[in-house]
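Standup notes, protein team

Yesterday: finished cleaning the Ramlibacter humi set.
Today: biotin--[biotin carboxyl-carrier protein] ligase structure.
Blockers: none.

Input for biotin--[biotin carboxyl-carrier protein] ligase:
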Amino acid sequence: MRWPAEAVWEAVAPLLPGFTVEVLPELDSTNSELMRRARAGRTEPVLLVAEHQTAGRGRLGRSWESAAGDSLTFSLGLPLAPPDWSGLSLAVGVAVAEALHADIRLKWPNDLWVDDRKLTGILIETAAPVDGGASRYTIVGIGINVAPRAAPAIGLRELQPDATAPGTLLAVAEPVVRTLQAFEQFGFSPFQARFERRDALADRAVRLSDGMAGTAHGVDERGALLVHTAAGMRAVTSAEVSVRPA
Ligand SMILES: O=C(O)CCCC[C@@H]1SC[C@@H]2NC(=O)N[C@@H]21
């Protein structure tokens, strides 16, 4: 199904004052496109949506696969200068989850899960400081599965049978922008309790990519994952975390 691009533009643009809104039929990756533009000096606030990505990217060099029409793939680009960057992807996850459904959980640090199946991935990248100042051009890429997907993924339609990619964009775009603005001012701490209400790892046995095992106990005020290990409580700021089978 093709997007009603003009209608989407007309509905979303008024929600995002100061942003240019673009809905394109195909791109390699919305994140890659905004990074190319930033490197060419174009650092204005943009919402860029691709109906289809030919080379969608995930974290850690992974790819983000989606067929046309079965997912929502977009990036927001804007200059940001928060006093502390830690926890940004968690705050964005809170905004997306709260905008979509009560049953969505947050899997530290970047994923949204339903019943331990991945619904959404978030890829945040930043370009060089804007005009040599404190702001960095920040590209927040979000991929949301909409059509039902085989495990280990899941589609939003399994929670909301009438979900569509354009409707999902309308639901999440403004909350994510408001979150980025709040994060720039206040950092992660206002999002800590909201994250913990949806924490998919809370009180679960986890394994970190460095081999350490323990039990997850929420996040601290900077968004670090707290893991109780044999060596004591660790505040984990960068690692892959997997749930250990019970
Ligand atoms: O799960 C992950 O590792 C993150 C996936 C992020 C995918 C989105 S889709 C829109 C934007 N463009 C990309 O190439 N990636 C992000």
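Follow-up from PR in the comments: The chain is about 25% helix and 35% strand.
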